[in-house]
Design brief:
The complex is a heterotetramer of chains A (about 160), B (about 375), C (about 280) and D (about 650).
Chain A: E1 13-18, H1 22-31, E2 40-45, H2 53-61, E3 66-71, H3 82-99, E4 107-111, H4 117-134
Parallel strand pairs in A: 1-2, 1-3, 3-4
Chain B: E1 2-4, H1 8-18, E2 20-30, E3 37-45, H2 64-67, E4 71-78, E5 85-88, E6 96-101, H3 103-117, H4 124-131, E7 133-138, E8 164-168, E9 176-181, H5 184-192, H6 220-225, H7 232-236, H8 245-249, E10 256-263, E11 266-273, H9 294-313, H10 323-327, H11 334-343, H12 356-359
Parallel strand pairs in B: 2-6, 6-7, 7-8
Antiparallel strand pairs in B: 1-9, 2-3, 4-5, 4-11, 8-9, 10-11
Chain D: E1 4-9, H1 21-29, E2 34-40, H2 46-59, E3 63-68, H3 71-83, E4 92-96, H4 98-102, H5 108-126, E5 135-138, E6 142-146, H6 150-161, E7 165-170, E8 184-185, E9 190-191, H7 192-205, E10 209-213, E11 215-223, E12 226-233, H8 248-252, E13 256-258, E14 267-269, E15 271-272, E16 284-285, H9 291-295, H10 300-304, E17 317-323, E18 325-328, E19 332-334, H11 337-340, E20 352-354, H12 355-362, E21 383-390, H13 406-420, E22 425-430, H14 440-450, E23 453-456, E24 459-465, E25 468-475, E26 480-486, E27 488-493, E28 495-497, H15 501-508, E29 535-537, H16 547-565, E30 569-572, E31 577-579, E32 599-608, E33 611-620, H17 630-634, E34 640-642, H18 647-657
Parallel strand pairs in D: 1-2, 1-3, 3-4, 6-7, 6-18, 7-10, 18-29, 20-27, 21-22, 21-27, 22-23
Antiparallel strand pairs in D: 5-30, 8-9, 11-12, 12-17, 13-14, 15-16, 19-28, 24-25, 25-26, 31-34, 32-33
Helix pairs in contact in D: 1-5, 5-18, 6-7, 6-16, 12-13, 13-14
Classes of the chains: A alpha/beta (about 160), B alpha/beta (about 375), C alpha/beta (about 280), D alpha/beta (about 650).
């Protein structure tokens, strides 16, 4: 949830990208000067299987509006079996979050290989548009500490 | 002053003009899938139409978190070169009225006052909240099966330290209450609602007695002081699972931990409840832990309630409200322990744990 | 054997406990004993044959007995447990998680007749799955079809309704960790929540920390929950914790095939393995 | 308190044109822990690096954040630079301001805000970096080759020629594998024995190579540079140190059993060498056939052996050896066509033979001294049918893959038959003819010119009619069924991995694909490596191939092994997982998630409360761990952590990005 509340509000999206495939794909998108929205921030991890579901919870708690976990296609993992575990972990986490009221579009996972630069750009653009339509996330958000808005809770989250 | 039962909501509306009134009422959460409506009796802010329940079982959570909240911001800070600052955050100036608390909870507030005010250091946060609150205590009518406050030297009908004492007039089913102011604040409160005074009514009912009578030795605290290595501890503490339920629901537990929350180069320091039953409460650097197993921790809790507090403040810290008995997952019972400790021979070598309930059927 | 009454089972339990203690092989036998109120029992650790007469068996014996074996992870003698079906599943759970060794346990299995505990209505294993001696006639176990009924009903609500419901529940939570300490699947020696240096989890009991704790625990035990219901029973604020932990079991059931935990020591957990042909939604 | 230096690069105009670099540097000054922040045109240039070094001295910086191009580009450059300063090379984080910010955004304000955010993320992460040091693991300068076929021999020779000791473990009594069974090899028609036996002799005689024939690998542990392998020496009943290979015992041995080497078309004595040019040419006793060992009779060989080398009381011996690298060259086996194709007679007709059986027939040292005769009655066949793709390219009945070599060796067989039997006719049923190698197509043309009849179609049925084998098939080019009366049929059967390959793979901890061929690290870029560091593969164990490819792979694997053994020590990457053993509860959830089987549960002294106990905790093998971090997410208490990407660091990154 970002501080600014006016209409050209920009969502804050976190993307955990695996170093061998998706991060390389993102660099390739840069090399080809492809353009995509600014509101995705990439965190580099050695393998998508390093991403602990608790990082995703932490992101929502600290005010992220959307989280993306990207890795190599199953079978292509640089570490051979990493993304098979990723697949199971995040299919279950996505359902658990949806079950707790978070819109599944806010948490997505995608397989993007090192050469699929266009797919990276399209994924980012698509996720950014979807979350911009959903608006700021007020679920699971902690009382964001802001010395001017100390006690007032985010509206909608707390009745 | 005599107040009719039906005038209670009116009285509270008058009072809630200048101060926030907290009274025992039911928090309902409707579960649409199973149709069950979860109900819990706790102290809630009074608004129009909230149904106040003064009799029946005591609240699940003690009034403690109105004076000593679970999370309390202490100070905020920012590190940004010249305009860095550290600012203390005192509780807001908000007058509160605590309406309808029982003598056992009132006694627990007295104990908390001793802790936070006496012995040279006054806790500014607690002090601020305590000054702003006016307490209206009510005489207990139907003590629960787990209540044993009169065995701990508390009269269920009297709360000498409260600002206003409320008792039912005449028999327990009486239609009105007798209110007696016991402090300046109490007088001011009664003046505010004097318009509802019925002038005449029967004497305040003083006959409530706890159903659960337990045999407690007079000098139990001194006896326990000598029983630190007594074999009773091995037996009594076995079933504990080391959770924090009893400490967080106990009205007289006041331990807290201090933590901070950082956002970039600014943040705030807050204190929050902590429990001596947690395994990491006394864990030190390097992993050493003077109280490594649940036996030591539960022994420490019982000793603090029944012996250590006496050494320092001269009174027992257990007010007999029975909340820890009602909510303990393993159904352990401090009253059972008090009876066994009273009956135990201090220098015994072995001890067999005979369940206290078997010889004393429920009254 | 003829249908056993509660009293007969109680005597058999006492006899078995005495026999175990007399051999000196067992340091203590844990079961239940009476408390001041007859509708409540508490765990009882009989250490001498005489103390075995304190052990009782009635429909209020609802406390889980298995997790107390973790109090001493390096025992020199065996630890006797009077175990119902759910307790044996807890034992299998802790053995699979390598926190207990089967040879350190002497299990007196008792066929359970359903206790005064809401979860017993959905019990799938009244017969102990692993025991040294069995009391009572083994009963045919069947998985009730109402296993995930509550979850499916809850899923039908709208996302905002679901979130509002959970927000209210987590507002109530007082962060006492009773659910963690009672759960046989939560058997780490140092829980993530106790590691403040890393900062996974704050200690305050405000909604934010409670939600993170609730969801993290649901995820941690999600693929190992044995549905014994202890978390819901011990919660002082009556949060529907099983409604969280069972959700992942339902998903694993749907996605990766029929799934039940604690049935044997060697079963693999859903998140501990993978199949290359797992369903994939992230293409 | 950390003293962080932040250096924002313009990258000429690449970054500066879109991102307001001065504003980013200014914003960096107010971030927690930042002691110095500046920007410069080319950080990676010499002056740029000099500027950083100078700033480190001047401001006593201990951590560096560089906002520049992708870490995949210059992380190594800046780490090498830091080696020259007293800052540990791993106290460095790089914010990707070019590929993932300047080049992909146009709006200057938003790009600058994102750049500031990315720098804040890196500053938050570097605040938690710990100095990491590469550790050195010693290398045992010895290689192990599993499998003594041409692949194993070639690899061993190349490694030995580099001066390293090699041990070949071969389960058969002699090395040579399948190649030594062949008669001629395509496309040059060299005699297979003439080109493989010299290599076998070289291997036997090479000072650096020790042959361990009639042995199998029992267990493998350890990691690259330090493999500890237990080798099981099966019972030979002949002491090879005493025996000179005179062969007297073989002539006197009364029992005759089927010779596996000659594909069951001849007999061999109980005490035997598989074939004449066997290396070592010393016999072993087949314990199931020897009368002395089974019924305690005979014992002639012991009596007549001039050197007393026979020892009936021999037992299995296990020897433990250290190796620095392992090459898997376990080869292939022909699939059992009898189960797959009952319609070809299912083995009832003796004259329906496999390619290998034909190789033995046409081989001069074979059972028929090179005369192509029918196994049933010994007559010379006039009409021969060769059926290709028996089991290959047939997912329903056999294997889905193509066995690659059969097209060529079937053409060779046709050429040999037409050459050796004047007036003979050869019909070859095929689906496609694949001749991908050098000189292969020309060889195929010569065969057709010799008169081989190529019929495009599959054979549906083979049955015997008095003395002839009726082969029913179709000619899909003519579009009508075809029947050939043949004297003999040769089946080009599919290749399969060597028997019981799963055990070897399981012992080595490497992985297989769905057809049980060993899984190479990367089909195109790392064909001779496996996922486990220090274990290489070559030859048909990785998939069907012919001899030229096998030998090429063998030399490649040897080069890879030499690359390891030529160093005394090996530097391991410090970005690997490590376990905080005080917090570890020994639950072992991390163990199954490790692709490299680098985590094991070990007993260590520890503390339970205030008691001293021996605890079972996880331990990471520094040589095997490649730093993927999969175990980190499986650990519930988070006590197994990946250095360089710790849970703590990523949490701080998430916090910084969500400000």
């Amino acid at each position: 949830m970002s501080i600014k509340k006016d209409n050209n509000w920009e969502p804050r999206i976190l993307a955990f990208c695996c170093n061998w495939c998706t991060y390389t794909g993102a660099d390739l998108a840069g090399l080809n000067r492809m353009k995509y929205p600014e509101n995705v921030r990439v965190i580099r991890v050695p393998c998508s299987s390093k991403v602990n579901p608790q990082f995703v919870l932490r992101a929502f708690q600290k005010g992220a509006d959307g989280v993306l976990v990207c890795g190599c296609h199953p079978g292509d993992c640089h570490y051979s079996t990493g993304n098979y575990f990723t697949r199971r972990r995040f299919m279950l986490l996505q359902r658990l979050l949806e079950y707790n009221g978070i819109d599944p579009k806010r948490f997505q996972a995608k397989w993007i290989s090192g050469s699929e630069a266009a797919k990276f750009r399209d994924t980012v653009a698509e996720v950014s548009a979807q979350i911009k339509a959903l608006g700021p996330n007020n679920k699971f958000v902690g009382a964001h500490y802001d010395n001017t808005v100390m006690e007032k809770e985010a509206e909608g989250g707390k009745d | 002053m005599i107040l009719a039962k039906k005038d209670i909501p009116k009285a509270l509306e008058i009072l809630s003009k200048e101060a926030a009134v907290y009274a025992p009422s039911i928090r309902k959460i409707e579960d649409r899938t199973t149709g069950v409506i979860q109900e819990e009796k706790i102290f809630l802010p009074f608004e129009e139409g909230t149904e106040i329940i003064l009799d029946g079982p005591n609240t699940v959570k003690p009034p403690k978190d109105l004076l000593f909240p679970n999370v309390e911001k202490m100070y905020q800070y920012k590190a940004a070169g010249e305009d860095s600052y550290i600012r203390e955050i005192l509780p807001e100036d908000e007058k509160k009225i605590l309406f309808g608390i029982r003598p056992c909870d009132m006694r627990s507030i007295e104990s908390m006052d001793k802790v936070f005010f006496t012995k040279t250091y006054v806790d500014s946060y607690y002090a601020k909240r305590r000054d702003q609150v006016t307490i209206v205590a009510i005489g207990c009518l139907q003590p629960e099966r787990t209540c044993f406050c009169d065995s701990m030297g508390i009269d269920p009908n009297q709360a000498p330290q409260a600002d206003v004492m409320m008792n039912v007039a005449g028999e327990p089913e009486g239609e009105s209450y007798v209110l007696q102011a016991q402090t300046e604040k109490g007088k001011a409160l009664l003046d505010a609602i004097s318009s509802l005074d019925q002038q005449e009514g029967a004497e305040p009912y003083q006959g409530t007695v706890c159903s659960l009578k337990i045999r407690k030795a007079e000098d139990l605290d001194k006896k326990l002081a000598g029983m630190f290595d007594h074999p009773i501890w091995d037996k009594v503490t076995k079933g504990c699972i080391g959770c924090g339920t009893c400490t967080f629901l106990c009205p007289t537990c006041y331990c807290f931990d201090i933590d901070n929350e950082n956002y970039g180069n600014e943040g705030c320091k807050y204190r929050c409840w902590d429990s001596c039953m947690f395994s990491d409460y006394t864990r030190m650097a390097g992993g050493a832990n003077p109280r490594p197993t649940k036996k030591e921790r539960l022994r420490n809790r019982y000793m603090h309630k029944l012996s250590y507090f006496n050494e320092r403040y001269g009174e027992t810290l257990c007010v007999g409200c029975g909340r820890c008995i009602a909510s303990c997952p393993s159904h352990l019972d401090i009253s059972e322990f008090i009876e066994k400790a009273t009956a135990a021979d201090p220098d015994a070598v072995s001890y067999t744990d005979v369940p206290a309930g078997t010889d004393r059927k429920e009254a | 054997m003829a249908e056993l009454s509660e009293a007969m089972v109680q005597d058999l339990i006492r006899a078995e406990a005495k026999k175990a203690l007399q051999t000196g092989e067992v340091s203590c036998v844990i079961g239940w004993t009476a408390t001041r109120f007859e509708d409540r029992t508490k765990p009882y650790f009989a250490q001498t044959p005489e103390e075995c007469d304190m052990l009782i068996w009635n429909r209020y014996c609802i406390n889980g007995t298995a997790k107390f074996a973790l109090d001493d992870r390096y025992p020199d003698k065996k630890f006797g447990i009077i175990a119902r079906g759910c307790d044996t599943r807890a034992i299998n759970r802790m053995i699979h998680d390598k926190q207990l060794k089967r040879e350190n346990l002497y299990i007196i299995g008792v066929v359970c007749d359903g206790k005064e505990n809401p979860v017993c209505r959905q019990c799938a294993h009244k017969t102990p799955l692993v025991c040294d001696v069995m009391i009572g006639e083994p009963v045919q176990d069947v998985i009730p079809e109402s296993r995930f009924q509550e979850i499916e009903a809850f899923e039908k609500l709208s996302p905002d309704e679901r979130y509002a419901y959970w927000a209210k529940q987590y507002d109530k939570c007082i962060h006492c960790y009773a659910c963690r300490n009672a759960c046989p699947a939560c058997n780490c020696i140092e829980c993530y929540a106790d590691q403040y240096r890393v900062g996974w989890q704050g200690k305050a009991a405000d909604r934010e920390q409670n939600q993170i704790y609730g969801l993290t625990r649901a995820y941690h035990v999600g693929d190992r929950c044995i549905e014994c219901g202890e978390c819901e029973r011990v919660c002082p604020m009556h949060l529907p914790i099983m409604r969280q932990t069972r959700k992942m079991l339902k998903d694993i059931n749907d996605l990766f095939g029929p799934y039940e935990c604690g049935l044997s020591e060697e079963e693999t957990t859903a998140l501990g393995e993978f199949k290359t042909a797992d369903p994939d939604e992230f293409m | 308190m950390a003293r962080i230096g932040v250096f924002i690069c313009h990258c000429g105009t690449n970054i500066a044109s879109v991102v307001d670099v001065e504003k980013v540097a200014q914003a960096a000054k107010s971030m927690p822990g930042v002691a110095f922040a500046t920007d410069y045109k080319y950080m990676c240039s010499e002056p740029g690096q000099a500027m950083i070094k100078q700033a480190i001295e001047e401001h006593h910086l201990d951590r560096i954040v560089i906002g520049s191009c992708s870490p995949r580009m210059h992380e190594l450059t800046f780490r090498k630079m830091l080696k020259a300063t007293n800052v540990n090379p791993y106290m460095l984080e790089i914010a990707n301001l070019r590929e993932q910010c300047a080049w992909v955004h146009t709006d200057r304000a938003k790009a600058t805000e994102k750049a500031i955010n990315l720098v804040r993320m890196s500053v938050a992460k570097v605040g938690n970096n710990k100095p990491l040091h590469t550790s050195m693991i010693p290398i045992t300068k010895k290689a192990l080759v599993i499998g003594g076929g041409i692949a194993g021999i070639q690899a061993a020779l190349d490694i030995a020629d580099c001066g390293f000791d090699v041990t070949i473990v071969e389960k058969e009594p002699s090395i040579g594998g399948h190649m030594v069974m062949l008669d001629k090899t395509f496309p040059t028609m060299d005699c297979s024995a003439c080109i493989s036996t010299p290599k076998m002799v070289d291997a036997g005689a090479h000072p650096n190579i020790t042959l361990k024939t009639y042995c199998e690998v029992e267990s493998v542990s350890g990691y690259i540079g330090n493999f500890e392998v237990t080798i099981k020496e099966k019972t030979k009943f002949v002491n090879h140190d005493l025996c000179t290979g005179c062969g007297l015992c073989q002539t006197k041995c009364p029992t005759k059993v089927i010779s596996e080497f000659n594909q069951g078309m001849s007999k061999r004595p109980a005490i035997y060498i598989p074939f004449a040019q066997a290396v070592p040419s010393k016999p072993v006793i087949d314990e199931n056939a020897c009368l002395k060992l089974t019924k305690d009779k005979c014992g002639i060989c012991e009596k007549i052996c001039p050197l007393g080398a026979i020892n009936y009381k021999d037992e299995v011996r296990y020897t433990k050896e250290q190796f620095g690298a392992i090459v898997v060259a376990t080869g292939y086996e022909l699939a059992d066509w009898k189960k797959m194709y009952p319609e070809y007679g299912g083995g009832r007709y003796e004259d329906v033979i496999t390619g290998l059986q034909f190789e033995r027939l046409v081989n001069a040292s074979g059972p028929t001294e090179g005369h192509i005769v029918r196994p049933s009655d010994g007559k010379e066949p006039k009409d021969v049918v060769i059926v290709k793709c028996v089991g290959s390219r047939d997912p329903k009945k056999g294997k889905s893959y193509c066995s690659r070599a059969c097209c060529m060796y079937s053409a060779k067989h046709a050429h040999q038959i037409l050459d050796k039997i004047p007036g003979s006719r050869v019909y070859i049923f095929y689906m496609d003819v694949r001749t991908p190698g050098k000189g292969y197509e020309e060889f195929y043309d010569n065969t057709r010119r010799d008169g081989a009849q190529y019929i495009r179609g599959r054979v549906s049925k083979i049955y015997k009619e008095d003395d002839k084998l009726i082969v029913k098939g179709e000619d899909s080019l003519l579009g009508r069924p075809v029947t050939v009366e043949a004297d003999m049929v040769i089946l080009a059967t599919a290749m399969e991995p060597a028997p019981k390959i799963e055990e070897v793979v399981q012992k080595l901890g490497i992985s297989m694909d769905k057809d049980k061929w060993i899984q190479e690290a990367h089909p195109k870029l790392r064909p001779v490596e496996t996922q486990s560091a220090g274990i290489f593969l070559c030859g048909t164990c990785q998939g069907p191939k012919d001899i030229p490819d096998t030998v090429a792979q063998a030399s490649a694997a040897a080069a890879k092994v030499a690359a390891i053994l030529c160093h005394d020590e090996m530097e391991t990457s410090p970005m690997i997982s490590s376990v905080d053993q005080t917090k570890c509860s020994g639950c072992g959830f991390c163990v199954p998630t490790c692709p490299y089987k680098a985590i094991s549960l070990v007993e260590v002294p520890g503390r339970d409360g205030n008691r001293k106990v021996t605890k079972k905790v996880a331990q990471v093998n520094e040589g095997l761990c490649q730093g993927c971090g999969c175990c980190n997410a499986a650990c519930r208490t988070g006590c197994i952590d990946l250095k360089g990407f710790t849970n703590d660091q990523i949490l701080k990154e998430v916090d910084a990005l969500c400000l």
